[in-house]
Amino acid sequence: MRKLLLLFIVLTTGILFIARLFYLQIYDTSAAILSENNAVKQQFEIPQRGRIYDRNGKLLVSNQPSYDLMAIPREIKPFDTLQLCSLVNISKDELIVQLKKARKWSPRQPSPIVSKISQEEFAYLGEQMRKFEGFFIQKRSLRDYQIDFGANFLGYIQEVHQGIINDDPYYNMGDLVGRQGVEEQYESLLRGKKGIKYLQKDRFNRVIGPYKEGTLDEQPEEGKNIHLTIDAELQKYGEMLMQGKRGGIVAIEPETGEILALVAAPNYDPALMAGRDRSKNYSILDNDSIAKPLYDRALLGEYPPGSPFKALTALIALQENAIGIDDKVYCNGGMKYGSKGRNFGCHHHSSPLSLINGIAYSCNAYFGTAYLNTINKYDTPQEGITKWGEHLSSFGLGDFMGYDLPIGRPGRIPISKTYNKQYNNRYWGATATISNSIGQGEVLLTPMQMAHFTATIANRGWYYKPHIIKKIQGTDTLPKRFEEKKYTTISPEHFEPVIQGLNDVYNYGTATNLKIPDIEICGKTGTAENFIKINGKRVQLTDHSTFVAFAPKENPKIAIAVFVENGYWGFRYGGRIASVMIEKYINGEVTQKHLEDWVLTNTLDEEYAKPLSGKPFPINDGKKIVGKFLLETENKLVN
Amino acid sequence: MAIRSRGTSNFDWVLILLYLLLVAIGWVNIYSAAFDPSTTEFASMDNLYFKQLVWIFLGFIIITFILFLDSKFFERFSSVIYIVSLLSLLLLFVFGKTISGATSWYDLGFMSLQPSEFAKAATALALAKYLSDIQTNIKTIKDQLRALAVITIPALIIIPQPDPGSALVYAAFFFPLYREGLAATYLIVVTSIATLFIFTLLYGPLFVIIGVLFSIIGFILPKLFNTYREKRNKMYIITVLIIVFIATILIIESKTLILGIFSTTLKNILLSSLMISIGYFIGLIVKGKISEKQKPKYSRFLLVLLVVAGFCYSVNYIFENVFEQRHRDRFNIVLGKQSDLSGSGYNTKQSEIAIGNGGWFGKGFLEGTQTKGKFVPEQHTDYIFSTVGEEWGFAGSILVIILFIALILRIIQLSEKQKNDFSRIYGYSIAGILFIHFAINIGMVLGLIPTVGIPLPFFSYGGSGLWGFTILLFIFIKLDGNRVNEW
Fold first, then answer.
1. Largest CA distance in chain A
2. Taking CB atoms and an 8 Å limit, are B372 and A13 in contact across chains?
């Protein structure tokens, strides 16, 4: 025993050491990662971000050099704070706050202290830099906007935050990343790849040469330039027309699915999101909770589509053989429906009407009947709704559609479950859902979806997924999903009568006064009732003005959807805007100046102010007064 | 067999080879740790690695000198050597030079000499001389105290220099004492104290006392029942299996925390059963061959429990109130209760990073990023092993560990062969000293024990250290070489 004690202890110690070595060297490699961190310095070379052009090669967004003053906190030696502050034009307190923040983030990693230093400041600062140990200047490229519109689809670039760094190790503190719009969608193409130089450091953080003879270094890759499908002229014109209104315009080239214009109103100047005042400007825009300029109504606004939806009701009815082209429906200011004989109201027009005139005059009774016939063809309304929904889905509706912008809403195509739930699983009939026939009720679409179904009708039943990317530098191909032709469940022959109806809307129907000489336009007006909640009460507001159109009738070049919140008649704002937009796009100039002038001189600011006034207000040109409740509640308070 | 041979064939060439290997590998790593790419001249006394090369060659002269001395010289003059060595330590208080806070050096102009490195060999000789004396009986308290005095006097002089690390090495003399017949009780008491100390710091006194209570219950259990021999073997196995099973669950749990919210209660139950099982196992062994029931002396166990409680609470008190913060920090970092990467923990952390950076086969000679960047403080001296770890990886580190273990085991093996008590005791002493240096230094570099500044034998940069260990080892080689001439 006595002879063995030391022997035993020596062997145990040896085994313990080997186990510990195994743990440190083989099992737990976090130490090795840390080592790369403190012995090897990374020096980044940030490439130019790709430029953005429009479909005609017009430069929209380029770059301007920008300089960030960066600091590695633990390398900072005492320095003349006042001199530094005056050089970069910040207050001492601000500098202290920034340094504290940098230290908290990481004492070893560079953090930005002052971002976006101007060219002039940089010129002076560059000469003085050696006085400030631990600081260095990182060159970046900032956006230089050549246009003052299109902010909603361009997006912007901003400094990365912690969450982004955690998700994608490519980014380091102070890097810029695209947010919103194409800047976000095509971030990986636009940003290129930053170059990295690895340098061996000693413990005093002095660089003592390239690490591994520079074999690990990576060369920077320039960002790729991209061309968008947007027509800058059309876009600019659309934004001009939408001034003083809220809503959206979406124009699509039916043949390709290319988005020609994507107007969201109100919008803002993209230049506000570049430069040192970005965050200040951002909060101003973000805090505007009434007009919501950052809210892209063209992509995010889900609205009842209103009458334009009737074209789809007609197509489905024809496909389902629920109504014949020449079948006429009587309309006496509406139609009676259901066992209780409720009235499905309509406006004044001649009666009875067949399909083409039904569309031209936008007869509710006609489409109510067509819709009921469609649903009732099936044994149960559930089945009918499901079938109906399938047709709509084949248009890509009720879904995010898969276009190449990072935001969107699916809209809503009601399914039988929606109603089962609404009626607590009790029996419900097709008549309960009759509002769907005229684009009211449970159906919701975004302006993007409305433009899209219009383009699909223009194509007589097929489409490409809408997209905004036209060309990527260095490649001839686009993402595959934009090159797949999709077909709807409606046979091509059913489109002709519907298109004729849409054409007659211009010829003698609800948009007669919007005719553009020499262009055969097919369109449809829409007037959508809408409600908001004020103090918990449902209040009706002035109807939304919607309009969809495509032109020319044969070989259509443009399909457009216009949506103007609270614009009342579809004709009034939507129709005028759509018509002049079409003329602008096809002829390159606008001859119908009276339409343009009317739109430019009329704004809806007054209309938008009404629900905020706290007083009862008239809607729909004074035909109705709403908001009495507000007075009541006020009285109650007084009492 | 009265051949008075001075021939080289009598020296143990295994030890000499191991020595040369360790010194050579050590120098290669010092070269890497001290390498400065901006210096082009190799043979300059400004280069630490060149200096070390000089010390190594001077070491060879010392070796020759030792091997040519008469082997009886060391035994005869051990007392003189011991006293000279004590004087050299004492005179430090008058003539000493202070390097990094410790007044442990004589300034010789061209180099600094650290007498404590040589005092180890002197003490080993003196202890061997005293214990091998026929009149000494290590079983008596009087002689134990005298032996203790021989060991502790140099240690007590070294502590206030201050150099507690070097003083700690004198604990190594426990091994020869034990080998020569010191009662095992000392061993048990010392290990128990150390265990209780560590566990008190880790989990607090109350936790430890409850743990001890459970082990005592387990310890008493076998006394209360008849345990027949056939049954006993089975019980040994079952108890060991239970201990291993519970310990495995607890280890897995501590790594993965799968037990979640139930863990506190469940873990306490598991820990209690573990303590009872361990106590039961020891109880079984201690009960030995007796099969019948015994009446346990409960008062004695109560006393043990009281002593343990007293000890744990005083450790706690001393730790919290007597220790200074930097001491507490060192313990807390090693016990994993605290991590401080900029203060005391920095050295250890940097050393762990460098070693972890090595992987299986290391970064290669002069390629270690941490070594190149000089991130590990004192890397050429106390932290030299981190260079091995980074540049030669797991493979190189294991080789060095095996070489050290081989050296120590070879010394033990040869010691056992000695016909003369003096040589055997001396052999055990130096095996102990080398082991303590090896265990504490590498333990510290690997972050297993608190930071204690002592060199790795033959590896760490420094003339005094290298010569001290060389003398220590080669006196033994000389003594061993003379074994055939003893009779």
1. 119
2. no
